[in-house]
Every structure is written in structure tokens, then in C-alpha cells.
Amino acid sequence: MLTIALTDKAQSDLEGMHEYYAAMCGSEVANRIVIDVLGQLESLRTFSGLGRPSQSPGVRELVLSRYPYVAPYRVKDHQVEVLRVLNHRMDR
What we know:
Layout: E1 3-6, H1 8-25, H2 27-42, E2 52-53, E3 60-63, E4 69-76, E5 79-82, E6 86-87
Parallel strand pairs: 1-5
Antiparallel strand pairs: 2-3, 3-4, 4-5, 4-6
Protein name: Type II toxin-antitoxin system RelE/ParE family toxin
InterPro entries: RelE/ParE_toxin, RelE/ParE_toxin_dom_sf, TA_system_RelE-like_toxin
Family: Belongs to the RelE toxin family.
């Protein structure tokens, strides 16, 4: 089974997501959202082809359900490398 690795940028994106939702809805809601997003990313361990093809060669994009985020990732050396977690409304 594949492992999941977050790049520094993806980790920073998750921290920014948490800060945003904590300010808007409180830290408990922010924690639940980030945990849910991490759970969706974990599904790539089993289903690495789940995401849609990206414009970048070798990169796929997981559209996160219930949230306006997309996570570009690539599979290499038995690892799913999550490159970013981007708000598809603002970060494109």
C-alpha cells in the first residue's frame, strides 16, 4: 500500500485552512474540517488514480468533497506526494 506525504507547501496550506475556518467558525469546526480533508487524502493510499488528470504531466488532482479545495498530487516510489491543498476559487 502507498504512503501519503505532504510537501511543506501542502502542510502550510492545511495550516492556513485551519486558521481561516477557526476565525470563521471556531477551532472545533476547523479541526473537524482539517481531519476530514486528511481522511480524503488518505483514500489515495488505496485509490491513487482517484483524482482527475491535471494540466501538469504526472500530476493528478483530488477534488475534495464538501469543500472548495483541490489537492494536486503525484505518485512516485510507492508514495503519494500531496503537492498543495488549494482553494479552487482563489488559488488558481
